Amino acid sequence: MSLDAHTLAVGASWAATALGSGLVLWSWLGEKNAIRKLRFLDCGVVLLFSSVLLRIVAQDRPMNPWDWAMVFVGPLFIAAALWRLARTACPPNGK
Predict the structure, then answer these.
(1) From CA 92, how far away is CA 18, in angstroms rounded?
(2) What is the pLDDT of residues 41-92, one digit of tens each?
(3) pTM, to two decimals
(4) What pLDDT score does 66 carry?
(5) Are 42 and 85 in contact, with CB atoms under 8 Å apart?
(6) Within 13 Å of residue 75, how many CA atoms lie on the same side as its CB?
(7) What is the DSSP code string of 5-72?
(8) What is the Cα–Cα distance from 81 to 88, expressed in whole angstroms?
(9) What pLDDT, on a 0 to 100 scale, did the predictor assign at position 19?
(10) What is the pLDDT of residue 11?
């Protein structure tokens, strides 16, 4: 079994999906602090959507309507989660 770039990318995307799902579940079930809950959820959303987009790019079959929907909606969710992560970061020193 040879490890080429395609196999490595798809494997890494599945690992990111598992990690992202774990973060989302932890934010729903385990975390009690509201800010930490939101940050765990946003990190999970970024990992989930980016891994799905990577698998769409790496697939060999033609794109179906679900793939096209994810290509248009995924970056919106990623941008929104990254914006919220930036807004809930620690305040700069001096405030």
Answers:
(1) 33
(2) 999 999 999 999 999 999 889 999 999 999 999 999 999 999 999 998 877 7
(3) 0.86
(4) 94
(5) yes
(6) 5
(7) HHHHHHHHHHHHHHHHHHHHHHHHHT--SHHHHHHHHHHHHHHHHHHHHHHHHH-SSPP-HHHHHHHH
(8) 11
(9) 97
(10) 92
State both tokens at 49: 């959507």
Place of tokens 């179906």: 64
Cβ contacts of residue 10 below 8 Å, gap of 6+?
A: 54, 55, 58
DSSP character for 93? T
Quote the CA–CA distance of 74 and 51 in Å, as a whole number.
10
Res. 14: pLDDT tops 90: yes
Question: How many angstroms from the chain centroid is the CA of residue 83?
Answer: 13
Separation of alpha carbons 30 and 27, rounded Å: 6
DSSP state of 4: -
